Structure formats: C-alpha cells, structure tokens
C-alpha cells in the first residue's frame, strides 16, 4: 500500500480511530491492531510475502528467548547463527541468488565455457532488506547482552512489522522501538500536530519534488545517447533531488505517522545536501542504515583502530557492503566504492569528524569556505548518484564521459524535454525552506511557528494546494526495490 494512494487515505483514518477508541488501558489490543493493520498494509502488494515477515518474527523471537535462557556459550552462538543464516539466507535467495549465478555464467563464458544455470523466477519482496536488518540486530543485541528479549510475541511481531516504517525504514533498533510497544501510549495533541506537519512536508517532498523530478530524470537517463553533456548533467541533478525527496519524504511520512500513534522513530535524514564533506554527508544520509553498518560491521571489524591499512580495509568493506545492500548490480557496488574513495582522504588525514555541527549554525549565510565545501561535496555526490541510477556500468561510464566532454558547453536541450518550468522556482523555494529549517528535526517543524496564525495556516494550505496541483506524476518509492 502506498502512502500517496486512495487506499491509504481510507486505511489510515480507520486504523487511527479504532486504535485510540480501544483506549490506553488495553495495550495488548492496541498492539494486536497494529500487527493486523501492518499485515494488511504489507499484504496489499502481495499477501504471499506475509509468510516471510511472520517467519522472520517467529525465528528471532524464539532465538532471542533461547539465547537469554542458556548459559552455554556454544548454544548461544548456534542460536545466533541460526538467526543470521535464516535472515541473510532469505535475503540472499530473493535478492542476490540470480545476481551471483549471472556472474558465474559470465565468468565461464569469458573463458569460452557455456553453462546452463537454473535461475529463479521470483520477485523481490518489498522491504525485505529493511525488516531483515531490523530483526537481525535484535538477535545480535540479545546475544551481546545489550537487550533483554521480549516475552510478548504480539508486541514483538508488531515491532517487526510496524507499518509506518516496515517497507522503507527507518531501520529501527529493538532497544529504541520495542520498549515502546510495552508501555501504555496516550494521545498527545502536540505530538500529533507535529506528526501531521512532518507528514505534510514528507508528502510535499515525495509528490511535488521527487515524482516530478523523476519524470525528467527518467526521460534523460532512459534516452541518454540522445542528449548532450549539459542535458545529461541536468538529468543527474534532477535525479539527485528525486532520490532525496523520495527517500527522505518517505522517512518524514513514516516518522510523522508514528507520532500519531504515540511512537517515536529515529531520525533518518538530517539535510545531507548541506554537508561540507562526504563524512558529514554519510552522518546525515540514511542515518539508520549508516549507524547499523557502523555498529554491526565496522566496529566488529576493528573500526578506526589499528594501522592505516586496517582503517582503509574497513572503510572499503562498509561502503561496498552498503552499496551491495541497495541492490544486486555492479553499479551499486561501484557507487559504494566511489564513496569510500571520497571518504579515504578525510580518514587518512583524520578530518572525518571535523564537521559535526550544523553548517552556518545561527547564521543565514554560510562563509565562503563553507559554501565551497558544500558545493564540492554536493558535486561529488551527484557524480556518485549517476552510478546509482544507471542501468549498468557501461551506461554510467558513457553517461559520465558525455558530461565530461565538450558537449557540456552546448545549450541544454529543453525543447526535447517535457519540462514544466514552474517546477524550477518550486525547487528553489524548497531548497530555501530546507536551508532555513536545517537546525530542526524536519524543515517546517518550527520555522512558521512565530508567524501570525492565519498566515501560518495559509502557508500549510498553500503547500496542500501545490501537492494537489503537482500530484499527477505518481511514482513508486525508489527504496521499495531495496
């Protein structure tokens, strides 16, 4: 079920009303409703994949209890590896099985040997990468003694399948989200208002920015051989705004929606395009995934401890695995490796933690140096996104070679693009609002609060009107494919 669909517009008020009518003293029934609603929400795409969510919940629930109850170290490890093999096994089968077989087949063909391999005719379950990592971290935390396992199967299953963030995150930690299912939740009007405000901004980013930028980006990327370098650069810029508006928009909707039900989800984006270096970018982009890899892969590998070679090795591992997490394609692996290359100079020079504060904090205009750093980081990010968006490696290389050719100085081929030029000033205003609200949880959290109430509500209705006007180009959320 899509957030930006008629189905969800009926689903949400119905679930919300029943949820709060149940009352805070009937916590078990509230959790049961969330579980049922989540399964309906997820099963709306394909009910058959509900069995995977249920199976992951079942395995990790009992693995957690088993680890906690035994003092035998070998048994603890066996139970942990059961969770790891089951979760990563399901993910690997659905997401990477055919990818590995294709590469094995290509390797044999390269040496003149043609082999027939049986590929699986399966589709990727929506959100499997997200809920797999969420349940896996639960088992690991219980094993490490950082978390007491849940004894309530309904609450645990609701935690795994919580519909606001089930299919595209944030990837929640059990330490943060699971306890919220075990505490009475009271309706908080202030939290609900902030939640609706965050949802509004999320819908704006998705429907107005992402979906409309997608039309131009898709046209240019899908027909890249027909365009010159300057037009391809425009396509890359539109995709850069598309993926940010799409994914951060989903996160805003998910976090805001959770607040309506009395839950607090972790922040997943912190205005990453205003970063001054690539290390800061990755502290601000898809925070739930970045911190997951930091805690469960980078630190266990040794992190930044040891010599330079260990640091470089660990950096490449975490970025390449992050790229591979996004999809079974060499383009994602190169995208991850490219970000590792961007990151290495900062790591070697020990400048990767220089920019921990908000850029131009307390100021409207950044310093010249800050602006230059931000522009360079943004430019490097745009180049990396080309590999992320390209169909294959050769497509990405040809795309980049055209950009970095003399045709970059030719006029942009606007006449061949179905570009609604009114979108340009809207994007500019969008960037300005994001800049003004960069010190908040989300852009419009507080920036209109001091305005006269009728004016403030006028702004919100204007945003709604713009969403309705620009809602024709509906696109699926990009991260549903991961």
Provide an overview of this structure.
This protein is mainly alpha-helical. The chain folds into 2 domains: 6-186, no CATH class; 191-276 and 355-481, no CATH class. Helices cover 64% and strands 0% of the residues. It has helices at residues 6-22, 27-43, 50-69, 73-95, 97-110, 128-143, 153-161, 174-177, 189-222, 229-260, 278-284, 287-298, 308-326, 330-348, 368-389, 393-403, 423-436, 453-469. Helix 3 packs antiparallel against helix 4, helix 13 runs antiparallel to helix 14 (330-348) and helix 14 packs antiparallel against helix 15. The protein is globular and about 70 Å long. The model has no long low-confidence stretch (mean pLDDT 91).
Gap from first CA to last CA: 16 Å
- What is the string of SSEs from the N terminus onward? HHHHHHHHHHHHHHHHHH
What would the principal axes of the Cα set say about the shape?
globular
Task: Report the structural category.
Answer: mainly alpha
